[in-house]
Amino acid sequence: MSQVFHHHLEKFIKIDEIEFTSILSFFKTIKVKKKEDLVLEGQICKTNFFVLNGCLRKYFINNKGIEQTTEFAIENWWITDNISYEQETPTAFYIQAVENSEILVIDKYSQEKLLKDFPKMERYFRFIYQRAYAASQIRMKYLYDFTKEEFYDHLCKNHPEFVQRVPQYLIASFLGFTPEYLSEIRNKKRS
Amino acid sequence: MSQVFHHHLEKFIKIDEIEFTSILSFFKTIKVKKKEDLVLEGQICKTNFFVLNGCLRKYFINNKGIEQTTEFAIENWWITDNISYEQETPTAFYIQAVENSEILVIDKYSQEKLLKDFPKMERYFRFIYQRAYAASQIRMKYLYDFTKEEFYDHLCKNHPEFVQRVPQYLIASFLGFTPEYLSEIRNKKRS
């Protein structure tokens, strides 16, 4: 399963098998069950997660006491609360498994040592954060520009595999709908 | 003025004067007047901007034909449309000077060459994108969690120098208010 990570790294930098074995030694591999929590609100988010297979999500409890999902991570994506991770402050988020998942886990100090020992990983993480930042800029535009219905249409059109894969109540939580309202929209689209 | 950039780089990596002179040769320095456009919607955003002094903003024209500001960049911040810059696709944004500003400008190919010639700049840009991504995660939470009034209160409390510095109609454009509505809220806060 760790070969998923090697293959992913190879998209950005050249890593031979010996290097990869050393790089992998900085990580732990864990398996989590669907709905298992990896991070709870108020904790310091001490680790960064890379999804080998499965799906994780990040959410917070909003003012109305409702779970607001802000991010999903499927295969080959990283997820953490970056502010909490970097500044070692309590997180406002939860991170939870959406599916049974296999995850690479690294803590901040191991990640720093990894970057020191393998400077080419600076290039890799530069690409990763650059891509994540670009995606968040577009997401921000959608949040300002789209109605919730338009955002749902956009998801269905551009990421149909995602809409199929993730339970509908979590799609609703991502869009800021109630599950009932999402159901209504879906019925409207069908008719 | 370029020493602002050297000082900024030194926060992340060690750069001596000779290296800095070489690094600087990858950039152009330009001066822009208040309200001057650097990027227009529909163009390919070919350059990345670093603010030496002054202030830039990024905005798009929303469905209602109104300017929606999504980002400001003051001294020591980078700004571009990262998707357009990286994928060489037409941008949906405008980038405009909020104040008379002095800017370092680099195009994508020069930035790639810079990273190749000075691998330590990978580390620098890794920090920059990591920081920008973390900031955008928090911003996303605010967009979901705060009412517009709460977002304004948060800005006033946590970034008073910013609220003082930027014209009120642009603060309104950032928050998604009409200038009249912002004026109303400000009067309420005063009374």
UniProtKB/TrEMBL annotation, chains A, B:
CDD domains, sorted: CAP_ED
Cyclic nucleotide-binding domain mapped to chain residues: 11-115
Species classification: Bacteria, Pseudomonadati, Bacteroidota, Flavobacteriia, Flavobacteriales
Residue runs in coiled coils: none
Domain of life assignment: Bacteria
Leader peptide range in chain numbering: none
One Pfam family in the UniProt entry: cNMP_binding
Protein name stated in the entry: Crp/Fnr family transcriptional regulator
Bilayer-crossing regions: none
